[in-house]
Amino acid sequence: MNCLEEDANQILKIPLPRRPLEDQLVWTYDNRGQYKVKSGYYVAFHMKVKDMPSTSSNQTGWWKYFWKLSLPTKIKFFYWRAFFNILPTNLNLHNRKLLVAPICPCCGFDYDDTYHALVGCKQVKKVWKLTRFYSSLKSTMPMEFSNLSIHIASLLIKDEFEEWVVFCWSIWLARNYLTHGNDVRELQDVVTRAENVVASLRTGITQGQANLAKSTQPWYKVNVDAAVSSKADHAGIGVLVRNSAGDVMAASISQVPFLGDVEFVEALVVQKGLRLTSDIRLTPTMIESDSLNVVNLIGNKIASRCEMGWVISEIQEALTSSHSTVKLLFAPRTCNEAAHHLAKLALCHPIEQVRIEEAPSEIFTYVSKDKIM
Ligand SMILES: [Zn+2]
User: Fold this and answer.
1) How many angstroms is it from 47 CA to the middle of ligand 1?
2) Which of 26, 147, 260, 276 is most enclosed, with most CB atoms within 10 A?
3) What is the pTM assigned to this prediction?
4) How many angstroms separate the CA atoms of 93 and 103, rounded?
């Protein structure tokens, strides 16, 4: 058999067992190498989706329509993230190496993607059955959530589509409630909450919020800080990511060894902030640090010492790369309280912790106190 040289090289790289074994067929899309119809379907579906023409040409009109919906900012942010497949579904967390398996926490299905989490899950379907949207949904096959959104929007008038978005949001909240160790909420509760939000929108109770939401596109802000332990042998570093509505997108605490240089640690936490946002696929508008020296070092306003030169240049590269629009800004300590308390909390937690869409309860008061802008 003739082999391309590249293929031959790849084959030669396969490690061989020490003892001879029978050849066997292995399905690489399953952890155990076994073929299942479910995973075959999933792979075939995603291959098909890749081949579909991009919807970007009609997306400009779609987004104009979307941002004009009279909905609270946080619900629009949620839906925007669902559309771009950046919600922390278990499949996304798994792909970012933050979770071992991409299994649905509600029904155990193998691939918890956005469509599954908001529409396809067995548990979620029970909620949709109680709504008027079920007839439009029951015939849909698994698809990219963005395509489903455009499809559903084409079937519904504006008021109905707003209601649909609120239902998706209510389902997502219920699911997070469940995945944080709480009991399954009554399905009717999910429906009632969504109906209440819609009713309050229609009566204008949140009209102020809705008006505010009309003009805004989401942006993200990262606050970072470091704290040195009393023995000065290690430092705690804290990163807090929030959106422009003030909702927490992610919080992380970890420790690094302390070698006597506070600025070095303050620079490391800026780098950590950039990595965390990249892991959760958000593009922040700004990173705030309360270390004026580090902000000046990275902005080339003062020369860096050679011991920390590498970390400064890595951050500069990340900030000036072609797809980056993030700015590093100085924030006085009073505007960086939440990150400061995260860093202090990190001092007593040797294992790194990353939380998605929530902050540790210890810093709740500081999160709400911090100025967002
Ligand atoms: Zn499920």
Assistant:
1) 22
2) 276
3) 0.57
4) 10
Position 30, amino acid:
D
Residues of the chain with pLDDT > 70, as a percent, come to 76
Provide the residue ranges of all domains of the chain, joining segments of one domain with +: 59-215, 220-369
Segment (H or E) for 200: helix 187-202
Of 244, 223, 245, 226, nearest in space to 236 by CA: 226
How remote is the CA of residue 182 from the centroid of ligand 1, in Å? 16
Q: Check the CA dihedral 38-39-42-47 and report its sign.
A: negative
CA 240 to ligand 1 centroid distance, Å: 29
Going from the Cα of 215 to the center of ligand 1, the distance in angstroms, rounded, reads: 35
Cα(176)–Cα(309) distance, rounded to whole angstroms? 42
Ligand 1 midpoint to CA 201 (Å): 30
Range in 276-290, 296-310, 340-354 with the lowest mean pLDDT: 296-310
CA of 105 to the centre of ligand 1 (A): 6
Confidence of residue 181 (pLDDT cuts 50, 70, 90): low
pLDDT for residue 176: 75
Is it true that domain 220-369 has CATH number 3.40.50.880?
no
